[in-house]
Design brief:
alpha/beta; Rossmann fold; 5-stranded parallel sheet; 12 strands; elongated
Length: about 230
């Protein structure tokens, strides 16, 4: 992962220390604030790629922090990391200007993946690539063709779209919710096996005559396409 400077506003010092260590192993730097007012001040005057924000904070709650920095013109992407898991809590947080919402307890690979997605989304736009690749999997987005190690692979449209999202986010853990939202445009869990069944069919086609499966299952979290085996 490219170096990312993250602001964490979290009053749980043990969690802050754990996240500082975990993100540090992936080349990221964390600046930490333990209360709302100091977090808002840092966010307003600092240069951060992502802000990870708790909802329940001393001095000024997470909603207050977010509203204050948005009013100050700060457009830094914000992920709420909180125990407040109700639908109304999520809606309130997102409507206040957050970009994502993750409920505690959480898996660090999912938080890392969500940070990566926000950083890429916020990066300056470049000319769209017509060909993308990860490892020995190559896709031509104009011709809608797929090859693995030069061998053509025929995919259905939904399988192609799923593989494209996996390739674009190679080596990132993608949760079921992220796949539903970005591949199927579903913003809720329909309690179906649409993700699992399409992953299974995609694996069957990608792995025919190959010994190594490039799609890795991350138990209880999601899936990851390995850029190298």
């Amino acid at each position: 992962m490219q170096p990312v400077h993250i602001l964490l506003v979290e009053d749980d010092r043990d969690l802050a220390a754990t996240l500082t260590d975990s993100f540090g192993r992936h080349g990221c730097t964390l600046t930490c604030a333990a209360d709302g007012p100091s977090g808002a001040e840092l966010a307003t005057r600092g240069q951060f790629e992502v802000l990870i924000l708790d909802r329940m904070l001393p001095g000024l709650d997470g909603l207050g922090v977010l509203r204050r920095i948005r009013q100050a013109g700060v457009r830094t992407p914000v992920i709420y990391l909180t125990t407040m898991s109700g639908i109304n809590d999520r809606v309130e947080g997102l409507e206040a200007g957050a970009d994502d919402y993750l409920v505690k307890p959480f898996a660090f690979p999912e938080l890392l993946a969500r940070v990566r997605v926000l950083v890429r989304r916020d990066a300056p736009a470049a000319e769209p690539a017509t060909r993308i690749a990860a490892g020995d999997v190559e896709m031509d987005l104009l011709k809608r063709t797929v090859r693995r190690a030069g061998r053509p692979i025929a995919l259905m449209p939904q399988e192609f779209q799923l593989l494209e999202y996996l390739v674009r986010n190679a080596n990132c853990v993608l949760t079921r919710a992220m796949l539903l939202q970005n591949v199927w445009n579903i913003n809720f869990d329909p309690q179906t096996s649409v993700v699992e069944s399409n992953i299974s069919r995609l694996r069957t086609k990608l792995n025919e005559n190959f010994d190594v499966d490039p799609i890795q299952t991350i138990r209880n979290v999601g899936y990851k396409l390995l850029a190298s085996q």
